[in-house]
Amino acid sequence: MSSLIVPPILTSPRDDAIKLHGAFKGWGCDTAVVIDILAHRDAAQRALIQQDYRAMYSEDLCKRLSSELSGKLEMAVLLWMHDPAGRDAVVVRNSLTTGNLKAATEVICSRTPSQIQLIRQHYHSKFGVHLEDDIKRHTSGDHEKLLLAYVSPPWNEGLEVDRQMVENDAKALYKAGEKRLGTDERTFIRIFCERSRAHLAYVASVYHSMYGNSLKKVVKKETSGNFEYGLLTILKCSENPAKYFAKVLHKAMKGLGTDDTTLVRVIVTRTEIDMQYIKAEYSKKYMKTLTDAVHSETSGNYRAFLLSLLGPKY
Questions:
Q1: Which of 51, 49, 123 shows the shortest CA–CA distance to 86?
Q2: In the chain, helix, strand, coil percent, each to 5?
Q3: d(CA 271, CA 278)
Q4: Is the torsion defined by CA of 254, 260, 262, 263 positive or negative?
Q5: Cα 188 vs. chain centroid, distance in angstroms?
């Protein structure tokens, strides 16, 4: 469920474009106007504003925003201006090419099959290369095999679960991990990448009943590094994606300093998808609202923009 608050009576994209152009005029930028408009428009509306802005002023709105804003606010607003699949493609590309493999793994392994298909299309049209080729170029070993398997067909998104197949998968994972010396990584990759979320969540439950151990603990014991992180992301998102992202956000704000790149990535990419559920999970787990946490870790216009995306506290 989205946390985005769009006004009940909207101004036209043309009027929004005119107001934004006015905010850029004169000495400095009227950032409050930029936030008030852009933080309260959905992906389709933002696309129309960009279209009308270019038609009226022969200028790319994102380029203008880049020259008018700076720092963390610029990073957040520019990421927000993309449509969801295009944004994911940009995040994955930047993360792969700059060596932030954890971020690339998070985005890929937390997305549904239908989202992955759209990301692949956008990736190729934006960058002229296939996502699979960049994964091969920038990752290696079991981590590479996992990501390649996850972004490739066959995909299964159904809610139907076959009890016998679930038990067979639980047994196969036991034989591939706890039962043997060493780990059969191929079995983990096959089951985690080829099964639906509903099926995998059921496998985790049945595994615990059959062998008295959680599948998450098994993954942590049997694997490591980015491969482990990818498997855990797939598994946790099969059970409760909102809980997974609440934890990612908490970790980004925990301790000294804030991981603003992660904070922005998660808030911006989940606002129009499931941020209301993430806020609920955050409050339940950390006894503090996500809004209060973000408020205490950020400041100025950057804070105002993120809080606008988050919407009401509850």
A1: 123
A2: 70, 0, 30
A3: 9
A4: positive
A5: 23
Residue range 154-179, pLDDT digits in tens: 788 888 899 999 999 999 999 999 99
The string of DSSP letters for 246-285 reads HHHHHHHHSSSS--HHHHHHHHHHHTTTTHHHHHHHHHHH
pLDDT in tens, 175-207: 999 998 899 999 999 999 999 999 999 999 999
| C-alpha closest to that of 240 among 290, 204, 264, 271 | 204
- 8 Å CB contact between 291 and 313: yes
Q: Are 237 and 110 in contact (CB under 8 A)?
A: yes
Name the DSSP class of 40.
T
Question: Which single residue is written with the structure tokens 């998660």?
Answer: 266
Q: What's the one-letter identity of residue 275?
A: M
Amino acid identity of residue 52, one-letter, is D
Asked if residue 233 lies in contact with residue 197, where contact means CB atoms within 8 angstroms, the answer is: no
Residue pair 77/33 in contact (Cβ under 8 Å)? The answer is: no
Which residue type occupies 138? H
| Tens-digit pLDDT profile for residues 68-125 | 999 999 999 999 999 999 999 999 999 999 999 999 999 999 999 999 999 999 999 9
Q: Find out whether 263 and 249 touch, Cβ atoms under 8 Å.
A: yes
Q: Is the dihedral of CA 100, 106, 107, 109 positive or negative?
A: positive
Fill in the amino acid letter for 42.
D
**What residues contact residue 264 under an 8 Å CB cut-off, 6+ apart?**
72, 75, 76, 79, 306
What single string gives the DSSP state of each residue in 195-230? Answer: S-HHHHHHHHHHHHHHHSS-HHHHHHHH--HHHHHH
Sequence-distant (≥ 6) Cβ neighbours of residue 193 within 8 angstroms: 146, 149, 150, 234
